[in-house]
Amino acid sequence: MPIDATLPYDPANIFARLLRDEIPSRRVYEDEWAVAFHDIAPQAPEHILVIPRGAYVSWDDFAANASADEITGFVRAVGTVARARGLVAPGYRLLANTGGDGGQEVAHLHVHLFGGAPLGPMLAR
Ligand code: 5GP
Question: Which of 40, 72, 86, 116 could form a disulfide with 46 if both were Cys (CB 3.0 to 4.6 A apart)?
């Protein structure tokens, strides 16, 4: 069920729990600003989620309210993960679903990192 990205942050959301190690995840990277882990239901041979450590509902919340250090740290972490997974040369796709029409289901900002095969058209029709 897509979320309303204008609602306040809910610390009980699944990725907040994952950050607190209350639920397991297959982490591939973490630093001061971000954590990256395998998506539980991969939609490409490589499907990694990268999330900021900070409590941000969505891309919109993050873009509006995160500090410059958080934004830099998060963007660098996404690039680091893609590079470390060997995705730069073959290519990859980033996606940040936001709110209802975007199909966002988890109310903690996450960037999908897809790769490992040609990904086809940008949007399914
Ligand atoms: P959204 O639709 O919000 O952009 O994407 C949410 C993503 O989170 C989905 O691709 C879904 O498979 C993934 N996901 C949902 N719950 C969990 C979980 O508990 N662990 C992991 N690793 N991924 C999850």
Answer: 116
Give pLDDT tens digits for 26-75. 999 999 999 999 999 999 999 999 999 999 999 999 999 999 999 999 99
Tokens of 8: 């306040």
Q: How far is the CA of 25 from the centre of ligand 1 (A)?
A: 11
8 Å CB contact between 113 and 45: no
Overall CATH class of domain 14-115: alpha beta
110 labelled catalytic: yes
Domain ranges of the chain: 14-115
Report in angstroms the alpha-carbon separations of 29 from 9, 83, 115.
24, 12, 16
